[in-house]
């Protein structure tokens, strides 16, 4: 088999061939494809060269196909149909028929606040799917996306990596959480209340200080951090019945999963907000499944935020 000169192969020539077979006329084929008659004649000339056959010969007012043209007709028709249906038609995705996993990388905060709501919505839209929540942090989430371990990452993360795309969902603020009975405090807390009471700290990296301490220092104040944990659940359980304050994300403080009597107060100092984003790999930007996952996360998160903030 001799090598194929692919540079001479043009999909439009196959379309022209199909039109000529259907109309048996250069003029009518040109009209069908909305091109000039001279352009169609040029296409026929190129087809004859490419396929090394006259393909059509004039008989009266019609162009009659050669034996080779009749042989090629079903092959070219099937090829054009395949291109139209499998290549040029966007791939559809039907959640109700999907039975695979939905893999979301979640920071500790995002999993606690959103995992139950995400489970309910994904299972409602895709009853046969499985929700896989993978713990990620600000360092390892990139690897999880690039190694195709998750479809989307959700949390207080951001990226400048050119192969990753992101969407901001909302901005979260901080509040103070404490046990009024054990601390003897009431909302709103004063700066004196805040600095004289021992603090528990939710710390991602194990450090027992945060930017809050820098702000206090600039005000000529300081606080005493007596305990730190990566887990908000641990800190929240610790606050009940103890003389402690913790500065936490507002939505975490407002979750209704705890049967305690902790109080919420605005912080008496400025504490930087943080942005919750979803991030996905650029290669999945046009994937129908990935788009469905992102749209579902977007709507679910925004609804959950609105509900919690209204409490």
UniProtKB/TrEMBL annotation:
In the UniProt record, does the keyword Signal occur?
no
Report keywords, A-Z.
DNA-binding, Transcription, Transcription regulation
Record-annotated HTH lysR-type domain positions = 9-66
Note the Pfam families from the entry: HTH_1, LysR_substrate
Database matches in InterPro entries: LysR-type_TF, LysR_HTH_N, LysR_subst-bd, WH-like_DNA-bd_sf, WH_DNA-bd_sf
GO MF assignments: DNA binding; DNA-binding transcription factor activity
Task: Report the sequence similarity comment from the record.
Answer: Belongs to the LysR transcriptional regulatory family.
What is the protein name for this chain? LysR-like regular protein
């Amino acid at each position: 088999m001799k090598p194929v000169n692919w540079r001479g192969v043009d999909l439009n020539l196959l379309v022209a061939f199909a039109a000529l077979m259907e109309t048996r006329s250069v003029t009518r084929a040109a009209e069908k494809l909305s091109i000039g008659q001279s352009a169609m004649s040029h296409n026929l000339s190129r087809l004859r060269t490419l396929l090394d056959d006259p393909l059509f010969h004039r008989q009266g007012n019609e162009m009659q196909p050669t034996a080779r043209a009749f042989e090629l007709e079903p092959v070219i028709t099937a090829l054009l149909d395949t291109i139209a249906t499998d290549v040029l038609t966007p791939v559809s995705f039907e959640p109700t028929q999907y039975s695979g996993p939905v893999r979301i990388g979640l920071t500790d905060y995002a999993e606690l606040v959103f995992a139950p709501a995400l489970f309910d919505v994904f299972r409602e839209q895709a009853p046969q799917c499985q929700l896989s929540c993978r713990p990620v942090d600000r360092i390892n989430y990139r690897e999880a996306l690039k190694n195709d371990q998750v479809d989307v990452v959700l949390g207080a993360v951001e990226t400048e990596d050119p192969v990753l795309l992101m969407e901001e969902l909302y901005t979260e603020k901080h509040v103070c959480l404490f046990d009024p009975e054990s601390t003897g405090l009431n909302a709103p807390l004063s700066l004196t209340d805040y600095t004289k009471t021992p603090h528990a700290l939710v710390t991602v990296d194990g450090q027992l200080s945060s930017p809050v301490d820098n702000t206090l220092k600039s005000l000529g104040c300081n606080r005493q951090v007596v305990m730190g944990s990566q887990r908000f659940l641990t800190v929240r359980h610790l606050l009940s019945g103890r003389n402690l304050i913790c500065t936490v994300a507002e939505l975490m403080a407002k979750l209704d999963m705890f049967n305690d009597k902790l109080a919420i107060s605005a912080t008496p100092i400025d504490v930087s907000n943080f942005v919750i984003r979803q991030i996905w790999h650029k290669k999945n930007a046009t994937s129908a499944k990935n788009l469905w996952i992102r749209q579902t996360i977007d709507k679910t998160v925004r609804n959950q935020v609105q509900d919690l903030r209204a409490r």
